[in-house]
Amino acid sequence: MNQRDAFLKEFRGSTIGSISNESSLDELFQNEVLRPILKLQNDIFVASLINYLSKNKIDFNSFSIEKKLALIENSIQKDIKFRNALKGIIIGLFTTDEYALYVKNSSSLNKRMMSMLVVRLKNQVQLF
Predict the structure, then answer these.
(1) Which of 22, 54, 63, 93 is 20 to 30 Å from 5 by CA-CA measure?
(2) In 13-64, alpha helices (H)
(3) What is the pLDDT of residue 128?
(4) Can you give the pTM of this predicted structure?
């Protein structure tokens, strides 16, 4: 393991969530890699969404809670440029081995990443 990989694993912290012998590879990746990264990068995700709303001149404060939640989800799911920026914030903290695993199953892991991120941002809607 190179110096960068060791630093990243230590910096991100330990596994979040339970892991058992029946856990799938995607579930292991989610709990060992994705959850710690999402937690670590939370402030930048919030700042990214605030910037997205500002750049697109969206008056988020005037929306109902339901509309805010829908907007968060639609922004991440439908705006490919924004979605790719968010993915980059996550992928940039992968070790080289984690990146190799990610590349093998990127479609499924991208869905997991984005759905976890949507839930995380929706749970913090009061910050926007």
Answers:
(1) 22
(2) 25-29, 35-40, 42-55
(3) 66
(4) 0.88
